[in-house]
Automatic annotation (TrEMBL):
Annotated protein name in UniProt: Endonuclease
Record-linked SUPFAM superfamilies: Restriction endonuclease-like
PANTHER family found in the cross-reference section: MRR RESTRICTION SYSTEM PROTEIN, SLL1429 PROTEIN
Coiled-coil annotated residue ranges, if any: none
Keywords: Endonuclease, Hydrolase, Nuclease
Organism, scientific name: Listeria seeligeri FSL N1-067
Entries under Gene3D superfamilies matching the protein: 3.40.1350.10
Pfam families in the cross-refs: Mrr_cat (PF04471)
Entry annotated with the keyword Hydrolase: yes
Length: 97
């Protein structure tokens, strides 16, 4: 699986370029699946291309559902607040302290 994560502001939609990039990455890395995950939503053109190319799109609601499936006794916010993630940023949607 190749996965691309996109962090966008509330009023911005993830566009077709993200789908094009992950589609190319799937071919380049010879992956069986390609996913784009965002903290927001997708544009209609991104959804259409993803459907045609077999790319899985996971939006804000889907991301929260994934988190809650792994931690059913907590809210998504509780899971994020109690975990310290390593990397360039603490995690999507949280301001650096």
């Amino acid at each position: 699986i190749v996965i691309q994560c996109k962090r966008y502001r509330r009023k911005e939609k993830v566009g077709i370029a993200a789908v094009q990039q992950i589609f190319a990455a799937r071919a380049f890395y010879d992956a069986k699946e390609a996913w784009v995950i965002t903290n927001n939503v997708y544009s209609p053109s991104a959804k259409k291309l993803a459907f045609k190319c077999g790319v899985t799109l996971i939006d804000r609601i889907g991301l929260c559902q994934m988190i809650l499936k792994l931690h059913p006794d907590e809210s998504a916010r509780q899971v994020l607040d109690r975990n310290e993630f390593k990397g360039g940023e603490s995690y999507v949607g949280r301001k650096k302290r």
